Amino acid sequence: MSTQTGTTRPSKVTTQTIVEMKQNGEKISMLTAYDYTMAQIIDQAGIDIILVGDSASNVMAGFETTVPITLDNMIYHTSCVVRGVDRALVIADLPFMSYQVTPKEALISAGRMMKEAGAHAVKMEGGKSITSTVKKIVDAGIPVMGHLGLTPQSIYKFGTYKVRAKEEQEAEMLIEDAKLLEEAGCFSIVLEKIPASLAEKVSNEISIPTIGIGAGVGCDGQVLVIHDMLGMNKDFSPRFLRRYADVHSVMTDAVRNYIKDVKSKDFPNSEEQYSS
What we know:
By secondary structure, this protein is α/β, with parallel strands linked by helices. The protein is 41% helix and 13% strand. It contains eleven helices and eight strands. An eight-stranded parallel barrel has the order 1-2-3-4-5-6-7-8, surrounded by seven helices. β3 (89-93), α5 and β4 (121-123) form a beta-alpha-beta unit. α4 packs parallel to α5 and α5 packs across α6. The longest helix is centred in the middle third of the chain and has 17 residues, at 168-184.
């Protein structure tokens, strides 16, 4: 079942659509968004999944890590995105410490994200340690996407953003975690910054889709942060990033031209003002 613009596709992308895309060998496209306008543009372009990532902590709020962003912040961003979307599946990150304490607390957080923000699913970082939490949330009727490999919410534990699971022991643990998340009810899993060969192996050994970021072409889909992909962020240049535009330069030039026109009294001209 194709989800590409101009071909036969469902009016709404669902979690079942995503699973069927893996079964049919169709790659899944996913980008982040954090506001109404950006979400509307991405959705109308034909994206399959929009992730309201806790990366909003970095690109929207200016924090160094994803740790500071709160559940209320994420609910706000997600509600903005949902209002701009007609077709894409909208998944929202549950932020740091909104699900780690107890499964009950996690269910309350996920429930708020669905009821108050209108998310279609939630995403959580972790493997074996969160399987009971995933099961509780899924049992309540809330779809869950997992996240393995580099898990940014645990940055202070790892102390680095380097590639994860390069050693055999950690790689074997990641494979086991992926299988446990599938058994717990996750409908898909993000694999972040792990060796491409490992990501392909995981993708082949589980029946649910994998979405890669810095994990190679063997994943069932790919995700990038929209600000990085559009070249809005000049300071972030990891190996896995492909910039599809240079919006930073376009915006800078536009602002400079506006300033110049205001200073020279060229803006507004006679056609850009009202007569009495």
